[in-house]
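Researcher: Please translate sequence to structure tokens.
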Amino acid sequence: MKRLFILLFLVGNTVFAQQSISLQDCYQLLDKNHPLLKQAATIDQQNALDVAVLKNKKKPAFNLVAQGNLLSDVTSLPIQLPNIAIEKPNLLQYKAYANVNQLIYDGGLLKATINAKKNSNLSKKKVLEVNVYQNRMQLNQLYYSVLLLQEKEVLLKDKLSLLEAKLKEVKTGIKYGVLLPSQDAILEAERLKVAQKIADNSNQILALKQTISSLIQQDVTKANFDKSIIPEVLTTELKRPELELFALKKEEITNNSKIFDHKNAPKLVGFAQGGVGNPALNMLDNSLQPYYIVGLKLQWNPFDWNVSKKQKEKVVLNKAFIDNQKEVFELQTKIALDKQKASIERLESTVNSDNNIINLRKKVLKTVASQLKNGVITASTYVTELSNLNEAEILRKTHQIQLQLAKVNYNTLIGNKK
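Model: Translation complete:
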């Protein structure tokens, strides 16, 4: 059974070593595994403890008291009554008793305090969500950097294949005296150079994947990164978690202000005291006697010297401050969205231009390849044109990936989680 558990664990942690991974997969892993999210459980536990402590106020408060007093003087009658002997109270007095207080009605203070605690708990957890969400822009950049390098590797391998095929062709030409002996060396040098670029490119991909693995807490170094399906940029409605946080902060301010409203409400408390004392309730009885007291106590503070009024003014100011933070956030986000829109439009135009350039480069290379075969030009000229085409294709792929990244960043900025 233990071996089966270990096997399942290893399978779960190597799943991405055997398949592709999408940007959405990375988002889900980020939202699930980010270390910050571990604090959410702690926040819930703290809130549960706070609420439990507050609810204890509904339970009877019980305490024991033992007290001894040595008095310098005691109450006595200034006159003597005929045929009645009144014993003077002892200077040494002592008693032991238990107090019980039961809150009967608190004007809604306890309920308001618990609601404020719960709202504060939601705000703290939303802050964690916001902080984790802000990592998405970094994740976007890393993910599409890997995509670009993967595409670049494909193009470099295509170039390597062309060079190897052309190298065989040139060697045949040299063998039959059609081409100069040094032409194959030029192609071989370029082939080694491209192989070196491919190796360097692979190292860069590995480094980026290691960074992503650390960010999402999942090993994806052996996974193939898929091109994510980018939704069309149609929505302009902001759906960022920060907006939910601003709303929760305002609600938290409102709930905290309700605590002050209920503090001045009438409160009814039942109390009871029972014990023994010398003297007890009869001050003229110098003996240890049991006693009890039971009653109700009403507390009300109708005047608070405008504290509630000032608190309400403070609430208005705090809400205005939150509104201003929201306004600033929306302005900064709008500026960032406008920048992404401009990038999308520019890159769409650039990609169209890249297509025209590549078509022309392919025509030139086709002509040059034929000329090299017939010994009209040197291998250097062919290598130059092949490199020009390869660089143009890499540049087009760069612009295409940048276009995808701009769309993804737009969706991230707008708060579209799809």
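Researcher: Any highlights?
Model: The longest strand covers residues 92-105.
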